[in-house]
Amino acid sequence: MNASYRHFGAGLVLLSLLAGVSCQEEYLPIEAAIEIPEAPKETLCSVKDHGAVGDGDTYDTAAIQAAIDDCAKHPEGGVVIFEENGRYHSAQIVVKNGVRLRLPKTTTLLAGIKREDYPKIYDDWYFILFSECTNCGIEGEGRVDGQGSLWVYGGTAEQKAVTNWDDASCTMPKQCRPHLIGVKASSLVTIEGMELYDAVHWTVHIEHSETVAVNNCNIWGDPLIPNSAGIVIDGSKRVYLGENTISTADNAITVRTPQASHGMELLLVDGGILQSRSSAIQIGHESRAMFSSLAFQNISIVQSHRGIAVALRDEGSMEGLQFTNITVETFFYERAWLGGAEPIHITALPRSVNTEVGTISDVRFQNVTCTAEAGIVVAGSVDATIEGLVLENVGIELVQQTDYAGGFLDYRPGVRGVVDDVQTSAIFIEFANHISLNTVEVVWGKPARPEWSQALEITPRTVHALHVTELFVHDESAHPHGREDQGGSARATMMAWVRRIENNLRSSNKAFLGLEANAASGVLGRRAASSASVIIIVLVAVVFMVFVVSGIVGHFDMRAKRHARTAEEAKFEKVAQA
Ligand SMILES: *[C@@H]1O[C@H](CO)[C@@H](O)[C@H](O)[C@H]1NC(C)=O
Ligand SMILES: *[C@@H]1O[C@H](CO)[C@@H](O)[C@H](O)[C@H]1NC(C)=O
Ligand SMILES: *[C@@H]1O[C@H](CO)[C@@H](O)[C@H](O)[C@H]1NC(C)=O
């Protein structure tokens, strides 16, 4: 049995069970695999037999399409095979029911770049199209090359300028280019082991489909071509992305519901390395229908402008988002690209003054380690508070990596836009209820960026029921707030944080039991051993907050995790150079 199919099976079992457990504590092991019966003998249809040349220049469209039609005639479907070392230049390829394309490692499909290589209507502009296709796929270790470089005609060092077709069917003039692979209104589609290279727009677009897997693919896009995204999933069910390495200018993985009629349900992203000049993972922006049971686990996000973005802007809602065993590295890129070095950025805001906006509820981050130039942002709004957010075993180390200006809060898209000249806190929360921070560590690295401010910042009177257990703050830098207080770094940060909370809540009940004394003896330091714990209870009107701050030995260590990551980074570098 093929290992990747086993993996797919495991993913599907997990997916089907996730729906039921999204609001419980339990997590299912990925090993819960099912046996998939041995596939019957395959019918092979050779493109060479149908006259394909494979010289990289001649259009082989007709031969490839004839091989697909040949295979599609068989009741069991079949596999379209290509020659080793072939370079097949083609206009759009439409895959039919039961057909899989199989490309050997040395084989490349080159996407045509002429307008007449694609259909009349923008909605159908895909190089390889699965449309109402069941039991289809593309597999092998070959390459599908979008030839993005041939679309570039200039631009700046920040962003390349690319050709867009002038076509009445395309309503966004800056995005009138074809996508590489489209899976539309299809089911049981697998994209397996492929190199998907240099797309001039989205690399894989999965739309209104069910049971789709993209496994072990390397997706590489030019880091300076706008909209060259990795995998975009719109309103689909049971989608499994396993062990993909994705490096693209636009988002590596995007999950959306642009149409009210199609919700997004059961997504599992397991394993993989993601890098983007925008967001590595983005859920939303387009959010007109429900998103439920989306799980992301065992993922490394590297060198991205934003790590995990959850953005609700429309009438849809989001429920049951889980992020587990993830490392995130973010830093600033040019302002031309969306993002602001935030490792986690969750926002629920109306798109325009008239928008009815849904709710975000039950979002969990567990075992997530971030190194970032800016902080975690959790921002609901008057119209849409965020309900139920857990950060458990979450570490954030603030590290300066670039000289780009920071100090802004990005509420785009929407009426609030970008708010400039603000300070950056490691964790910023507004308009949110039932928030639990459980074993959260903040490390201020050095040198410090000038805008860095508090470990935890809460907008006054917008956060109800915040539960904090074990928040560790460690200051390695001579950062401005540390210097302010002669008492030393960790303690200074903690005291500044406490003062900030106190001011923000305008507390008249300053029940900070013994905190000052404990802080002075050092229990708030990152590694200090102490059995002392401090409980602060602040009751202000409807605000109920409990803080338990204690020093413990041997809590999870970020540095060890960072070292463990280097092998994965090496793999990523290799792909980036390919
Ligand atoms: C996690 O992902 C990495 C890289 O994608 C992979 O090598 C590793 O085997 C995965 N670990 C588990 C437990 O799935
Ligand atoms: C996270 O990693 C731990 C330790 O490697 C493992 O036991 C756990 O099952 C993983 N959780 C998920 C959801 O992958
Ligand atoms: C988090 O990591 C710990 C230690 O590796 C592991 O025991 C635990 O199962 C993980 N949590 C989840 C939700 O996977």
UniProtKB/TrEMBL annotation:
UniProt keyword Membrane present: yes
Domain of life according to the entry: Eukaryota
GO BP annotations, alphabetical order: carbohydrate metabolic process
Signal peptide, first to last residue: 1-23
Keywords carried by this UniProt record: Glycosidase, Hydrolase, Membrane, Signal, Transmembrane, Transmembrane helix
InterPro entries: GH28_Enzymes (IPR051801), Glyco_hydro_28 (IPR000743), Pectin_lyas_fold (IPR012334), Pectin_lyase_fold/virulence (IPR011050), RHGA/B-epi-like_pectate_lyase (IPR024535)
PANTHER family attached to this UniProt entry: PECTIN LYASE-RELATED, PLASMIN AND FIBRONECTIN-BINDING PROTEIN A
Protein name: Rhamnogalacturonase A/B/Epimerase-like pectate lyase domain-containing protein
Species name: Coccomyxa viridis
Lineage: Eukaryota, Viridiplantae, Chlorophyta, core chlorophytes, Trebouxiophyceae
